[in-house]
Design a protein that fits this description.
Layout: E1 12-18, E2 27-30, H1 41-45, E3 48-50, E4 53-57, E5 63-66, H2 68-81, H3 89-102, E6 113-122, E7 137-146, E8 157-162, H4 178-195, E9 199-202, E10 215-220, E11 223-226, H5 237-248, E12 252-255, H6 260-267, E13 272-278, E14 282-291, E15 294-297, H7 305-318, E16 329-331
Helix pairs in contact: 5-7
Bound molecules: pyridoxal-5'-phosphate (PLP).
Pyridoxal-5'-phosphate is lined by residues 52, 176, 210, 213-215, 234, 236-239, 277-279.
Length: 332
């Protein structure tokens, strides 16, 4: 599959509408359009959140979803934090399972997968509601078959360490919402143009947080260091999974604040690695950092061994090549 990630869709999606008092029964509808009033709340006040998870095809032909419960509960939390209509856990779970089941024969085999995009937004035609929630909403689950993320070859990324600007408003960091992406876009484009980097690592006031769409992990020998959870950044399911796997391999997991200064000191060591975690790429190695115009190599500047080992361990569970010892897979 040579197409860009997320640009191919299954022809139908599962959809439900909230009319102000209840959600309609979920329906399968064509996925090429939705009708919205131009005054819809989401188009003016960004009342929207989404999720991203994957379904995998195992060798025995079965289809498994990875950490469905975690993604559903994060979706419900995002909705709550944005004052969008409440979503029911069982209802959302069933809509996801039903649409994946409908397109089960289209789920690509490893290294591909079916990317699942649940999306929620306020639909009320009310441009006067700048400071009030949308009474009505729409929730749908869209599917996009994806290929090998590393098809172009696995390479170590180059990132800009940004210690002034913010990715998004700090109180919105743990919400998976389009507004946060919009706010990180221009700084990221600027960094790409200026320094030819792949991503920006946001470190407000020297506090190493995350990039525009992935969490950050520093792997120093037997220790994994990453920011402890608070509302300022997104609580990645991949981050959590990698930490649990690392712990089960006997590694030390340190969830704490990490300063830019400490990070730069540590990456200078030959055995140090850095990686970005997220559903799309799982774990992508970082080989170079730019800070205040200066280039710093992470370890040997290449693809870290431990990064690859952790990524493989997670892929093996997802692809059914290793025992699902954490109980992360859901059958459809
Ligand atoms: C989705 C997302 C991540 C990664 O989360 P996963 O659950 O691992 O896919 C990290 N940071 C941001 C800002 C995100 O939106």
């Amino acid at each position: 599959m040579a197409t860009a990630f997320g640009s191919v869709f299954m022809p139908e999606m599962s959809i439900s509408w909230f009319d102000g008092s209840s959600w309609s029964a979920a329906e399968m509808v064509p996925s090429d359009s939705i009708q919205l009033h131009p005054g819809a709340h989401v188009l003016h006040y960004s009342s929207t959140c989404f999720e991203g998870l994957k379904a995998f095809r195992h060798e025995d032909g079965s289809i498994k979803l990875f950490r469905l419960d975690r993604n559903v509960s994060r979706m419900i939390q995002s909705a709550r934090l944005l004052a969008l209509p409440e979503l029911d856990e069982e209802f959302v779970t069933q809509m996801i399972l039903d649409i994946v089941k409908r397109f089960e024969t289209d789920v690509p085999a490893p290294p591909g997968s079916m990317y699942i995009r649940p999306t929620l937004f306020g639909t009320e035609p009310a441009i006067g509601k700048a400071a009030a929630p949308s009474e009505t909403a729409c929730f749908y689950v869209l599917l996009s078959p994806v290929g090998d993320y590393f098809a172009g070859g696995d390479r170590a990324l180059k990132i800009l360490v940004e210690d002034e600007g913010l990715r998004c408003a700090p109180h919105n960091g743990m919400i998976k919402s389009g507004g946060n992406y919009a706010s990180a876009l221009l700084p990221t484009l600027k960094a790409k143009a200026e320094y030819e980097v792949d991503q920006v690592l946001f470190c407000p006031n020297g506090d190493v947080q995350e990039t525009g769409a992935a969490n950050f992990l520093l792997i120093d020998g037997n220790e994994v260091i990453t920011r402890d959870l608070d509302e300022s950044f997104l609580h990645g399911v991949t981050r959590d999974s990698i930490l649990l796997i690392a712990e089960s391999m006997g590694m030390t997991v340190s969830e704490r604040t990490l300063s830019v200064e400490e990070m730069l000191e540590r990456i200078a060591k030959p055995g140090c690695e850095a990686a970005l975690s997220g559903t799309a790429a799982v774990l992508a190695p970082v080989g170079t950092m730019i800070y205040k115009g200066k280039e710093y190599q992470v370890g040997n500047g290449g693809i870290g061994e431990t990064t690859l080992k952790l990524r493989k361990a997670l892929n093996d569970i997802q692809w059914g090549k290793a025992e699902d010892k954490f109980g992360w897979l859901t059958s459809i």
